[in-house]
Specification:
Shape: globular
Order of helices and strands: HHEEEHHEEEH
Radius of gyration: 15 Å
Number of helices: 5
Helix content: 40-55%
Number of strands: 6
Length: 133
């Protein structure tokens, strides 16, 4: 299990470096906001069974979103992977297929990002992305 943990740590470090380079901010803030949103909306459904929302939206200021779109970075997938690992460590179950959608927002309240979650039943990840565009 040591090699797997080392690989996960390496991936997390590369993820942080990507965000730092792209956003000129600590990526930990957005990742932590997603994790907090997940944790805050966890519902205990029975002994040892905790359900969490499966659809997450990250809204970014126009200039940051534009930069991400231009660079072709798969930020939504990287955030999805990070959140998936977090839920696995916590033993959470998703309410359906997990998606993290990154969108442009002209009115981000703190000027940096906004994170929200919801439960989307019976929607595939592909269907979610088609509906969002």
């Amino acid at each position: 299990m040591g090699a797997l943990s080392a690989l996960e740590e390496t991936l997390e470090n590369r993820w942080r470096a990507l965000w730092a380079r792209v956003l000129d901010k600590e990526p930990v803030e957005v990742v932590e906001a997603l994790r907090r949103e997940c944790d805050d909306n966890a519902v205990v459904c029975g002994e040892g069974r905790v359900m969490v929302p499966n659809a997450y939206d990250v809204e970014l200021p126009d200039e940051v979103h534009e930069h991400l779109t231009r660079s072709g970075t798969e930020v939504g997938q990287a955030l999805t992977d990070s959140l998936s690992r977090h839920a696995e460590r916590r033993g959470y179950e998703w309410a359906g297929p997990l998606t993290v959608h990154v969108a442009r927002c002209l009115d981000v309240p703190n000027g940096r990002y906004r994170v929200a979650s919801r439960v989307m039943h019976h929607v595939s990840a592909d269907g979610f992305f088609r509906a969002a565009h």
